[in-house]
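Reading a protein record of the kind used here takes little practice once its layout is understood. Each number in the token line that follows is a code from a learned vocabulary of backbone shapes. One such record is shown here in full, so that the layout can be seen directly:
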Amino acid sequence: MLSEILVPIFICVVLPVMIVLIVGLVKRNETNRKAEIMLKAIENGQSIDPELFRAGRRKGSIKKDLLEKLNGACITSLLGLAFLIFYIIEGENGFFENYLPYASGALLAVGIGLFISYFAGKKMLAKEMEAEEKELLGDK
């Protein structure tokens, strides 16, 4: 009885809060390390690289972003389908009989949304992808 209340609370409340907290702590730690490096460089009279505080993520190509969407769509859709099949096979007497339909529905919805986003992006960004490929081929 108590686990029926605590499991959803931990999954829906505690888990997201912990993820946000951990990500925030990692970013703060990274910023503190960069600031420490900058302060030591200033103390030693060395030149300071302004690129140090810029965002660490490089801008990927349009094609790479679309392929990542397709990859995510395949994974989430297949997981949703697997959960649905497992629910149908397991029936009403499984341990997760209350959660599997919701999990499979959510994963299928996300997967379908990513598929739609992939195909719409592929159609809309075809010219930009072509220009990006020409630019990459022109540099080599």
User: Anything to note?
Assistant: The chain has two domains: 1-57, 59-140. The chain is about 80% helix and 0% strand. The two ends are 65 Å apart (CA to CA). The chain has a mean pLDDT of 86.
